[in-house]
Amino acid sequence: MDPNTLRQLNAIESLEARYCRGLDTKEWPALDSVLADDIEVDQTALGGDRIAGAANYVAALQNNYGRAVTVHHAHMPEIELTSPTTATGTWAMQVLVVRPDGHRVLGFGHDYDTYGIRNGRWVLTATKSTRLHLDRS
C-alpha cells in the first residue's frame, strides 16, 4: 500500500475517533467539526429518524444524549477509498448509554459511513447505524 493511501486511511480512522470522543465528552463543536454541513443520517434501524444537516444532527444528539453518559467504541474498520476525495467505511460498534434515571442500553452493531474531503479535510458525509443486539436495564 502506498504512503498516500495509508495517510488517507489514517485520517479517516482519526476522524471516527474524534467523532466518538466528541459525542461521549459532549464537546459539540469538536463533534460538529468532523461532520459535513450537508450530512445525511439514517437512524431508522434504531427506531430513530433520518436527519439532514450537521446542525440538525448535533441538535438531535444534544437532545438525546446531552444528559446521558455515553461510551461509543468503533472497531475493525473496513475502509475503501472510492475516489481521491471520497471513501466508505463500515465499523463494528459497541455503544453504552446510561440515562440520568439509571436506565441503561448496551448495543452492538455496525455503522455504515461515507466520507468526503471538504475544505481540504476528511468529514463524515453520511452515516447509517444498525444494531445486532441490545441489552436494556
Automatic annotation (TrEMBL):
Residue span(s) of domain SnoaL-like: 5-126
UniProt source species: Nocardia mexicana
Name of the protein: SnoaL-like protein
Entry-linked InterPro entries: NTF2-like_dom_sf (IPR032710), SnoaL-like (IPR037401)
